[in-house]
Amino acid sequence: GQADIGILGLGTMGANLALNIAEKGFAVAVGNRTTAKAFALRDDNPGIGENILPTESLEDFVAALKTPRLVLFMVTAGRPVDEEMERIAPLLSPGDVMIDAGNADFNDTVRRSTAVEATGLHFVGMGVSGGELGARHGPSIMVGGARETYPLLEPILEKIAARYEGEPCVAWLGPNGAGHFVKTIHNGIEYADMQMIAEIYGIMRDGIGLKPAEMATIFADWNTRGLSSYLIEITAVTLAETDPDTGRPMVDVIVDEAGQKGTGRWAVIEAQKLGVGATTIEAAVSARGVSSRRGERENAAALYRDVETAGVEFGGETDHIAALEQALETAKIIAYAQGYATMAAASGEYGWSLPLAEIARIWRAGCIIRSRFLDDIARAYDTGENVVNLLQAPDFVARVAAGEVALRRVVAKAVLAGIPVPALSAALAYFDDYRRARGTTNLTQAQRDLFGAHTFRRLDKEGVFHHRWPAV
Ligand code: NDP
Q1: Are 176 and 110 in contact (CB under 8 A)?
Q2: pLDDT bucket at 49, cuts 50 / 70 / 90
Q3: SS3 readout for 386-430
Q4: At 297, phi and psi to the nearest 5?
């Protein structure tokens, strides 16, 4: 065979990834359930098409590949991945590598990895972020799987990945499900980041009464400083857009029901399993769920009178926009700290040794949460000291300390005005819980001991105790 790599599945992501690989000078064999797409991909892309080898059957596809074969699946996540793997496995030879580059549940990746590695073939679970444009021109790539397969993939992946100041945004992150787990957390952080931006937009719209075009200017300004990121940039772009049909701001004609494909929910579920509070991500996932029941919300709006907003003057302070900026920046740090805490816990639980600094580095470009801020996170984890949580990294301690009051004021005002801020307030609640040395679960432990003899430990003595509580 001639091809350096093969891609099965030429939907949005597969086709764009194939073009990216071919453009970088690698020969890529392509196959698709609907075979015509493979030939169209070659024929419709003059100049790049010569590196694309369309195939009509799995046999042709396998025969087109150099050995050891690199077979990358970019099909709909779930059953289709298992089906394709089962069909091609008998045609492969020991040492060949199957790569699932879709958005897999990392639990599936662990299962597939174990099954495949037992047969002498290799399995790689690879998270690809950046959507259609990322796949075409440079995604952020999170690789997990057998370490010995990475040198086979690295030359191709380093060429097709996004670059941040020249450094390719791709890395091997750990065995089996590590890559897909990190991609899941990336998406969870993305949910939280987007939700918090939407909450600030809600305050600007319903609290201050700003027009979308005015907000666009503010977000564009924020994009020049600490919050600078792709998500803030596209917020400014979307808010500035006018609907060609009505002449109204585009955002004003869009239905307030958010879609979701499930990766945010996975992030929350995995955080819960690990006993980590990813409350900002949970708030974001829940908010999308509530948003999707619009009819129910409209009924509820009629049942409750408007909140008395007298005394809650968002526009009353000259620095209110600066306060919103600082509140968002502070909440964002807390949300990222939760995502990173989830990865740190998973790393211990699954024995992965996830490189947290490296993860921040490969997220600096190509992916949806790309930002300069991730460079700060990389530096915090790069100090060599064991950073137990971003909220304890010196640089972030200073930033949160500086922004805490703004976050408190913004959340408090929004709450008084009845403007929902589920993610911003979750960030604040988590922070207040996290920074309190003497918590309140001593009472919880007393209750548990009373009703279930669950025992407790004491502050003044070693050991495990049970108290004879009065009978209730
Ligand atoms: P599309 O819906 O565009 O394409 C799906 C592909 O899967 C098609 O090639 C389709 O073949 C193939 N397929 C579906 N079912 C089967 C099956 N049972 N057997 C064989 N082939 C099948 O999906 P995307 O390209 O958007 O997504 C692919 C993966 O990438 C998903 O896991 C997705 O979550 C992930 N992803 C998507 C992103 C995006 O922005 N779209 C971003 C990051 C990851 P056919 O042409 O014959 O229908």
Answers
A1: yes
A2: very high
A3: CCCCHHHCHHHHHHHHHHHHHHHHHHHHHHHHCCCCHHHHHHHHH
A4: -65, -40
Looking at the fold, whether 283 and 338 belong to one and the same domain comes out as yes
> Mean per-residue pLDDT for 266-279?
97
Q: Do 65 and 163 fall within a single domain? A: yes
The whole-angstrom separation of Cα 144 and Cα 352 is: 10
Active site residue 190: yes
Of ligand 1's atoms, which has the minimum distance to the CA of residue 129?
43
For residues 159 and 201, state if they share a domain: no
Domain range for 450:
439-472
Q: Which tens digits make up the pLDDT trace of 400-450?
A: 999 999 999 999 999 999 999 999 999 999 999 999 999 999 999 999 999
CA 246 to chain centre: 35
Specify the amino acid at residue 310. Answer: A
pLDDT at 310: 53
Q: CA 109: distance to chain centroid?
A: 17
- Tally of domains within the chain: 3
Asked if residue 56 lies in contact with residue 30, where contact means CB atoms within 8 angstroms, the answer is no
Would you say 186 is a known binding-site residue? yes
Tell me: do 430 and 452 sit in the same domain.
no
Q: Is 13 in the pocket of ligand 1 (CB under 6 A)?
A: yes
238 and 284 together in one domain: yes
Phi, psi of 5 (to 5 degrees): -155, 160
**Ligand 1 touching residue 103 (CB < 6 A):** yes
The answer to whether the beta carbons of residues 406 and 393 sit under 8 Å apart is no
Closest CA to 203 of 314, 286, 95: 314
Tens digit of each residue's pLDDT (9 = 90 or more) over 5-44: 999 999 999 999 999 999 999 999 999 999 999 999 999 9
Confirm whether 332 is a catalytic residue. no
Check if the interface score ipTM surpasses 0.95.
yes
Q: Mean pLDDT in the chain?
A: 96
Q: Choosing from 23, 37, 84, 183, which is the catalytic residue? A: 183
Predicted confidence (pLDDT) per residue in 70-107, tens digit: 999 999 999 999 999 999 999 999 999 999 999 999 99
Residue of 16, 19, 33 to mutate, ligand 1, most atoms within 8 A of C-beta: 33
Is position 129 annotated in a ligand binding site?
A: yes
Tell how far the Cα of 18 is from the centroid of ligand 1, in angstroms: 13
Q: How far is the CA of 180 from the centre of ligand 1 (A)?
A: 16
Ligand 1 atom at minimum distance from 130 CA: 42
Q: In terms of domains, do 224 and 306 share one?
A: yes
